[in-house]
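Question:
Write out your own:
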Amino acid sequence: MACAAGIATAAYTVEDTYNNINFFDTFSFFSGSDPTSGFVDYVTATVANSSALAGFSKDQIYLGVDHTTANPTGGRASTRVSSNKAYTHGLFIADIAHMPGGICGVWPAFWTFGPNWPSSGEIDIIEGVNAQSTDSITLHTSSGCTMSNAGSASGSTMPQGDCNTGNGNTGCSQSTSTTNAYGNEFNAIGGGVYAMDWTSDSIAVYFFPRTSIPADITAGTPAPQNWGAPVAKFAGSSCDIDAHFMNHNIVFDTTFCGDWAGNAWASSTCASLANTCDEYVGANPAAFVEAYWLINSVKVYSDPSASKRDAPETPPLVARSFTA
């Protein structure tokens, strides 16, 4: 019993910290074709640096998009970065001061995913499209994973729990109701902290506005058991989490239109602006001045009571000097 009690009270310990000191040495830029068919041109690290699409704003990490070029060929320039290290389980705490979102044509996301999609799963922590005002939190898996949202905060709803819906493309998604956790209202309060707690038993996402960040997070001793109900919790006996989620890299990106924002255009409040999403994004660069991420830090904590299955880290990138 003494051993069991010790395990139950084991504290999270910081495993990795990503901030202005090491972010661009520990995250890699993705510059391939957008898997979600967006009207976007993801640029390399070199281009992002030279064109001020990525860099630092004081001590914060800036990840932006092109907001000056009219009718760009092949899509609007943007940034997508992924952590070099992959994780299985952990408490991921992101302190974010500003995010894209609430902008017609824009599809921002902060998420994690593993190899051989969707076999290793995907966890969308922050995501939305067009003029959406609240966060959508979604899991994507291979077949055989059905979740419940029991334990989620009041106001969060999940119409169906099959995380392989649409062969994994739709997944199982919780719609949230906290307006200051996404987009314009999030930015108006100076952002806040998102935390994703991933164990063998559940995957839970929490949000804390800038003025309500728990003292244990600020002190570097996070204690999720004291935080109350998460914005979204996914659990249940009909999904073996360890069989469906593993070896995840951390991703920040901003795309345009594509499979979600583009397909939802006609039924959204944005439809009056242009016939198509691509047309609007191409012709209105100034609309995307606010479509940027400003990140204070991302910290990954491990639970010593959990078995660790972190994937090996890829060789570090050559150091780059980013300036905003």
Notes: Confidence is low (pLDDT under 50) at residues 1-8, 311-324. The chain is about 15% helix and 30% strand.
